[in-house]
Fold these 2 entries.
Entry 1:
Amino acid sequence: MVEKLGVWREEYRVGIERIDRQHKILFCNIKLLEEAISRQDFSAIPYLLDMLEIYFKEHFREEEIYLKEFPGFEVHNRKHWDFLGEVLKFIRKYQAGSRDLPALATEIHDFLYSWLQDHILTTDKKELSQVVIGS
Ligand SMILES: [Fe+2]
């Protein structure tokens, strides 16, 4: 179910300004997807999904630059690329058409939102704090 929750919160702060800004942009873009679903504007959804995939990819590359010298890098990296694999599967499913596009768009939205929230709180905050402490 799409809920009104696509905004960044203070508890997501990792302490690296660039990364926090990128997380805010990701939440804003997920919010745009949520709004398109609420408006039933399904023509916008393929573009929003492409934009999210591209921006997530760029964001992960940047996080990986910060993390590459620290323990846990490989596991963290794997989580990013496994997630992108799931996003791509969803995008292909959407492009292939579905009998129920609203339900699929909502499923994609909920997956993106909950993954990002969970990943920031359980992984990014813990591992990027090593970079903050070390700087
Ligand atoms: Fe991450």
Note: The pocket of fe (ii) ion is lined by residues 63, 76, 80, 119, 123-124 (CB under 6 Å).
Entry 2:
Amino acid sequence: MPKESHEQKAARTARIIDALEEEIPEARIALDSTNDLELLVSVMLSAQTMDSLVNKVTPALFAKYRTAQAYADASEEELQQAISRIGLFRNKAKNLKAAMTIIVRDHGGQIPRTREALNELPGVGWKTAGVVAYHAFGTPAFPVDTHVGRLSRRLGLTSQEDPAKVEEDLQKLLPPERWGRAHQLIIWHGRRTCHAQRPQCDACVIEKECPRVGVTLSDLKSPASATKRAGRSRPAPKRRSAPSRKASPKRKRPTKAR
Ligand code: SF4
């Protein structure tokens, strides 16, 4: 792909997101919640845990703990028991109680609406804060998880590895009102097609927009590639149900506002 200006890269980014929207309009957050408190709890619990497992645990949890005060009043042992099926449950129970205690003490029991305030809560990093701020309050954010980082580099939209720097690069390429949706679409494309190993480039709707930075020939030796080499018709991209998500390890923003 020839060297492109910022304007050309921004236009390409817009075409990529448009194509993904057309391909996977059903893309949405896979964690079940009905309010901002439940969303925050779900996202906190999902670190290094499949969304499907979180969704199995949270109905009983949400029925028992309906307010931030209820979590703050519970003992860590009680919370551990309620989420014991989830990975890192001891640490997550500790963070849940500590975060809800701060929410009760400093925010009147209401979930803080800014990404910066959310980021100050125990167990809530910059990425998690962005996910909650965007989905709960519509705050523009382009949270960078493992999928968004990997795809952004393969697509040549950034060369950064640090999630905060990747997000800065991505934010320059789209208007703020598109950030959150673009984040969601890229995650789904990463789970369905642009896998960490063996990306399905032959079945990718944004193939013509992608320079495949860092993708090696051995990466492409996938069943889809074999089909194409054998001269068979190109397989249509599959529409699948919401894939379960394995959250990347929580990464804090390098410097926190204090
Ligand atoms: S062409 Fe390949 S590397 Fe590029 S986004 Fe599609 S699947 Fe990923």
Note: Residues 36-137 form a domain with the Endonuclease III; domain 1 fold (CATH 1.10.340.30).
